[in-house]
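During the second year of the project, the team shifted from modelling isolated chains to modelling whole assemblies. The rationale, set out in the original proposal, was that interfaces cannot be judged from single-chain predictions alone. As a representative example for this report, we include one of the complexes processed in the last quarter. Its constituent sequences, exactly as entered into the pipeline, are reproduced here:
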Amino acid sequence: MADLYQKLVMLLGDDLTVLILGIVLTLGFIQFNSLFLIWLERKVAGHMQLRLGPMEVGPHGIIQTIADGIKLVGKQLITPRYVDKWLFMLAPVIVLMPVPLAFLVLPVHPGVVVLDMNVGILLIFGFSTLNVLTILMAGWGSHNKYSLLGAIRAVAQNIAYESPLLVTVITAVLWARSLNMSAIVDAQDKIWFVFTPWGALAFLIFLISATAETNRAPFDLPEAESELVAGFHTEYSGMRFAMFFLAEYTNMFIVSAVGVTLFLGGWRGPILPGFIWFLLKSYVLVFMFLWFRWTFPRVRFDQLLGFAWKVLLPIALVNLVVTGGAIKLIDLIR
Amino acid sequence: MNSLTTYLLIAAMLFTIGLFGVLRRRSLIAMLISIELMLNAASINFLAFTKFVSPDPATGQIYVLLIMGVAAAEVAIALAIIISLYRWLRTIDIERADRLRG
Amino acid sequence: MKNFAFNVFVIITLIPSFWVALSSNIVHAAFSLFFTFFGVAGLYVLLGADFLGVLQVLVYISGILVLIIFGVMMTQRAQMEHISTRLPGRFAGAVLSVLVFGGFMVAVYKTAWPKLTELPEPVPTTSEIGNLLLGKYLIPFEVASVLLLAVLVGAALIVRQSVRKE
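Output from the structure prediction step:
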């Protein structure tokens, strides 16, 4: 391995080698993560409803998702007649584009981050909001009223919840005094941000907004099965559908990882090595998303939007001001 | 290759395409889209000048930041007007929007 | 490497921008804008403004573009309805654009641009932008925020009035 690494560095230079290795590892991790999460979701769902979930393929159904994946690859790609061909085909491609980029700036271990950008956190949110655009592409391109309704819902919801989400992110950035992800983790070496009163409130708002941003239940109105068939991806089949699925589960992990980095001290933790703590914390957050889904009933659309604009956003803004005041006060005391 | 004139050339092309779009379109939203191209071209120019001519790297970036703010404001208000117009006329064709009173 | 990235960004800026101006399908025009904005963001990064490049993605693509596409969807009754692009003065528009482009070319190539003897290395400018915004450029910054607030209220007012009269 080390020998191969040396050769790559000779061939491509230091930065490029790290970048390429990072991308390859990221792509591998995305596959593994989605396989694991889909299995986990079915298991969690099963056990919460006093069922067992998938049990047939492999011990406790662990390779069930691989079997499903093979089935999806083998399926025919159906393109309905009246779709907008360009948009219909581009949407599943673009939906996966921003996903690896977000991984590159996450600090996963002390000193391990592929791209140590000074605007890392902005990069993640810049690219993860591209999701809305692909949903619009898919919804509009499908030439189907359910898809279009799902897409319009998704956009209204994402715009509404983006605002409190970004305000809480700004709160954390203000506390850490940096947009660099590694610096944000460094700033939490004494106390994790979630253990301050304003940090706890910000984390709560972050969690709610993140659930809505990833279109998860109880905020899964864009793809509400009982109302809209499957929302914006109604017309997609085979691998194209798999792309949306992959992106959804990866986005869930990214949002959790960002939450861990901003509020839960990133890779910090006793005894175990950093990256294990990072993964552990992230998957605990992911598990909470699964837990929400199988516990809460779906909300109504006007409740959803009203909650974001009338409750979450004002609280988040007040919290931001309070955090600013607290930082000033702490500086004065020192 | 990456010199000041190259960037200015790109910005000029982008601006001209945007201008052509504005002159050619009849749909208000399509005109709005083309105006965005022109604003982007102006931003590229600001950043190119900052990098290649001005010794201070941040001043031009402030202008681009303000352009972004103004562009966001412009789109929001323009879309409000367009949707309001659409409710009156059921069209967003500028040639049909020729009455002062609804 | 940098040259390669530059070429890629120029291509994904300029080629879709022709669609933006020429496509008869307004939805395609709006989605082409996505690539153009993306390419421009890349050019910003190459010009040493990584903060603005990321902000371009955040503000233009996920803010302005989504808003525009939303507007397209609300004002387009049937999906297959195409905008008409037949303007009587279409020829005049083309001529005028070419003239303006020619003017730009003259300006770009005839001006003796002051040359920096030494190009500054690209440094992270994020904190400097912050200092300038809250120091030297405080008033433009505040005026911009007042403008945004006014737009927020104004847009809501305009749309609300037309709903009420209906």
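Confidence is low (pLDDT under 50) at residues 78-83 of chain C. The radius of gyration of chain C is 21 Å.
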